[in-house]
Amino acid sequence: MMGADRHKLHEYADREALAEALAAGVGAVLAGGLATRGSAILAVSGGSTPRLFFETLARAEIDWQAVTVLLVDERWVPAGHERANATLVHRHLLQGPAAAARFEPYYTEGLGAPEGAARLSQLFGHLARPIDALVLGMGADGHTASFFPGADRLAEALDPATPRLFEAVEAPGAGEPRVTLTLPPIVEARFLALHIEGEEKRRVLAQAQAPGPWEALPVRAVLRSPRAHPIEIFWAP
């Protein structure tokens, strides 16, 4: 599968329709995992874009008690911090039926991000892989997860052969230090979605799908990864 064939674009008239469609797709994948294995794993991203999607998915009538929710990446800030992705997930996803899901926070008091990433790689080494459903966002700078242009350990995080599940990164555009899933567990997810909204991000996506170095637009590393199934791209104006 080469070039644009690796990507399947779903366009919607508005963000409400996108949220409904993405939630339906993710819910179906989780239900499939629950039916075949008795459990399922969902990995989600932060930022303002996924809030409506989270609130829609939270109403899905599935066995949330058997679902583990992970973060694709996290700012290395204490629990309850306003900028923590965990706070966003608690407020908008772990509500209603989805409140029964098992959520795995990443921050550990007393550890820096590099030590935290090493600990998380060991701690989650037992998790069933591949992840059932993983939803990425994308910034206007072409970052996804915490793969930021200019990040200090970007090459390590994007190494397709890395044995580490998590990497710590610092970058000019990242604000706080962060921990992120590395490239391998992201691209091996059964259902991998890229959720973007607005004309600016549509233009960035077009640039990322064109030839060029992945260092400039790190989302290219994800978009160019070989997969058995396309990356599902969800976009609304």
Automatic annotation (TrEMBL):
Organism the protein comes from: Aureimonas populi
Protein name: 6-phosphogluconolactonase
Xref: NCBIfam families: pgl
SUPFAM superfamilies (UniProt xref): NagB/RpiA/CoA transferase-like
CDD domains for this protein: 6PGL (cd01400)
InterPro entries: 6-phosphogluconolactonase_DevB (IPR005900), 6PGL (IPR039104), Glc/Gal-6P_isomerase (IPR006148), NagB/RpiA_transferase-like (IPR037171)
UniProt enzyme class: hydrolase
Gene3D superfamilies noted in UniProt: 3.40.50.1360
Gene of this entry: pgl
Catalysis performed (reactions): 6-phospho-D-glucono-1,5-lactone + H2O = 6-phospho-D-gluconate + H(+)
Biological or metabolic pathway of the protein: Carbohydrate degradation; pentose phosphate pathway; D-ribulose 5-phosphate from D-glucose 6-phosphate (oxidative stage): step 2/3
Residue span(s) of domain Glucosamine/galactosamine-6-phosphate isomerase: 14-223
Protein EC: 3.1.1.31
Molecular function in Gene Ontology: 6-phosphogluconolactonase activity
Physiological role: Hydrolysis of 6-phosphogluconolactone to 6-phosphogluconate.
Family as reported in the entry's similarity comment: Belongs to the glucosamine/galactosamine-6-phosphate isomerase family. 6-phosphogluconolactonase subfamily.
Record-linked Pfam families: Glucosamine_iso
Keywords: Hydrolase
